[in-house]
Amino acid sequence: DRQAGFYGLDVYSLGASIEAVLLYLDRVDPEAAQVARQRYGCLAPWRAEPARYGHMAMSRGYAVCEKPVTDALLDLLHNRLGYLAKDGDAFFDAEQNARIVTAAEQYYRIMYYGNAQSWNLRDQHMFDTLERVLANRGSDSKAIVWAHNSHIGDAEFTDMGQVRGELNIGQLARARFGDDCALIGFGTDRGTVAAASNWDEPMEIKRVRPARNDSYEGRSRDAGLDAFFLETGPDQKTSVRDALAEPLLERAIGVIYRPETELLS
């Protein structure tokens, strides 16, 4: 039977991913599990608050845990054939979790530098994971990626890529898959969203500010329709494409949303 899977692509599961790798190894290779626990033990003090590891690594000036977590991944890959023979799907999940740990260690270590490097590492990791999931599911596999507009759109055509030097999964997918890839974003002039005011704060239901007139959401409101789907591909009417050719602001409501300072933040 053809089955669908549900996979996480992001790096924000350091503690859970370490636990998943260890649980897998406890089951298939207890000796390797002991070694992995020693390697991952480097991150133990920061599993609940991994951002503190990044601050510590920056203040000390070196990657304290880079080698141990990389070695844990290499150990897993070295025993790939034996583990695959026992349970291929379980090994695939463990491998992806081990890769998350290595990517998360890098991510939290460089996030304090405040440039595009941490963003690009994160989205490159998400795209690499997507490619591995597709390859694991077979040559005719397909995927739907659910993420915020800032990840799904093509960064090359926005200030993200043109000014800040950032890439995203939409850009990488379009470059890799061409016309086999469809990028679908969404926006609104009004309504409510679930977001927080700051990182690590509780979710709130926030009312969205009316869209600015110089934004795509404002232009969409002016169309006079309550809701609509608009295709902007090469076969779209020239008049529609011309109307959207002018560079405009686009909402980027993510995990954090501050309505009172939306344009600045």
Automatic annotation (TrEMBL):
Extent of the signal sequence: none
Pfam family, one: Erythro_esteras
PANTHER family: ESTERASE, PUTATIVE (AFU_ORTHOLOGUE AFUA_1G05850)-RELATED
SUPFAM superfamilies per record: EreA/ChaN-like
Naturally occurring in which organism (per UniProt): marine sediment metagenome
Name of the molecule in the record: Erythromycin esterase
GO biological process, any: response to antibiotic
